[in-house]
Amino acid sequence: MFGANLTIFHPTVFILLGIPGLEHYHTWLSIPFCLMYITAVLGNGALILVVLSERTLHAPMYVFLSMLAATDILLSSTTVPKALAIFWFHAGEIGFDACITQMFFIHVAFVAESGILLAMALDRYVAICTPLRYTSILTPMTIGKMTLAIWGRSIGTIFPIIFLLKRLPYCRTNIIPHSYCEHIGVARLACADITVNIWYGFSVPMASVLVDVALIGVSYTLILQAVFRLPSQDARHKALNTCGSHVGVILLFFIPSFFTFLTHRFGKNIPHHVHILLANLYVLVPPMLNPIIYGAKTKQIRDSMAHMLSLSRKS
């Protein structure tokens, strides 16, 4: 079974190394990481506050947008503070259960964000293709069911990974060459067959995301067909403008995620520190830019933000 000199154990702690190969640059890397994280938290927090405080924004589109902002905060806050602790204080220790918890929330946030982007695409489809039935289709009850479905699917998809990791015996090392815990990175430390982990970690979450991508593509195909059937150019321009910010956020989420995934799986010639750096930027850049894109492209959000700022100055 195992050699006599091989000790099986479940480590009480793992050691995260940050970005191996760039240890001498950790302090310098921490500066943009910290600034991007602060921007992401403040920007998404402000977006949630605006949506909650302005009654004119209590529409399905903005409800989904505030869900996206909250998920972005969850994704970045689950990873970046620990990375900064490693960069600044060399505090790489993380408990076994804390590591599993971090991994769980990272993957849940990823699958949830994909589902929220699909819900936003469906919202745009209903608003443009069947505008007269918008309020009757996207009722508060429907929004609640969609929210439960998004988070239920995310948690249900990722929850088995906890047991897939806890069943493994760890007898090699407790050092993780990364700045945060992720499923396959932890599984590779085990001294057992991890085929089930590899296949589940690859197929189940990716299948969920690929289904979302396909449905988003179908939604926008139908949206474009409806837009180009509109009689006036102004109407077409207005309809396309309402979708512009959402398309930007979709591209910002899916392109880096698939690029990071493919380079991690198939980019064997790419240096390991490049993989880790890309993985860190993926959990930072989209959460930082999403509120900026929506703030710049959505007039209602800009007007509501300006109104709140003017009230705060008067008070």
TrEMBL record:
GO-annotated molecular function: G protein-coupled receptor activity; olfactory receptor activity
InterPro entries in alphabetical order: GPCR_Rhodpsn, GPCR_Rhodpsn_7TM, Olfact_rcpt, OR51/52/56-like
Transmembrane stretches, start-end: 29-52, 64-91, 103-122, 143-165, 206-228, 240-262, 274-296
Subcellular location field: Cell membrane; Membrane
Pfam families reported in the protein's UniProt record: 7tm_4
Cellular component, GO, one term: plasma membrane
Signal peptide: none
Keywords: Cell membrane, G-protein coupled receptor, Membrane, Olfaction, Receptor, Sensory transduction, Transducer, Transmembrane, Transmembrane helix
Membrane topology: Multi-pass membrane protein
UniProt key word Amino-acid biosynthesis: no
Major localization class: membrane
Domain G-protein coupled receptors family 1 profile: 43-294
Function: Odorant receptor.
Family: Belongs to the G-protein coupled receptor 1 family.
Official protein name in the record: Olfactory receptor
Species of origin: Chinchilla lanigera
